[in-house]
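Next up, a chain.

===
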Amino acid sequence: MTVSRIWFAAVALLLVPACSSHPAGGAETATAAATIPLTIKSAKAEHKFRIEIARTQEDHERGLMFRKSLPDDGGMIFPMIPPRMATFWMKNTEIPLDMIFIRPDGTIARIEAETIPYSLEPVQSGEPVSAVLEIGGGKAEALGIAAGDRVIWDDPKD
């Protein structure tokens, strides 16, 4: 193989990822992803959501980046197996979110409310967690969701 053919093959391989079916910026629309039910049992009520699951490392890295909005009952959960300290940020995230850190027993360890879009400031769990749930900014306070409340969801892939 000549040098020019090797160079052409290398350039072609670099261009293949740019031809993916994802919209610009690698974003997917909220309606394109499958959702599952999730319930948060607070002191006064049960709150029902339809959430996406970030299953892969790529899903974890992308999260809700590039989204313009979330459905009122929408969100995304990031399973952590095994449980661990979690750190999130808002890079390329256009909407404010509430980050709900969930202990292995299903109770809420803490809530970081109204995270700031595009912020590179790390948001930490403060203790080992088995999942992080992101919902619309201000939603937890509006619904009376607090630390100690229970989060219930079944991952159909478990």
Helices lie at 3-15, 57-62, 139-143. The first helix runs from residue 3 to 15. DSSP finds three helices and nine strands in the chain. The first strand starts at residue 36 and ends at 41.
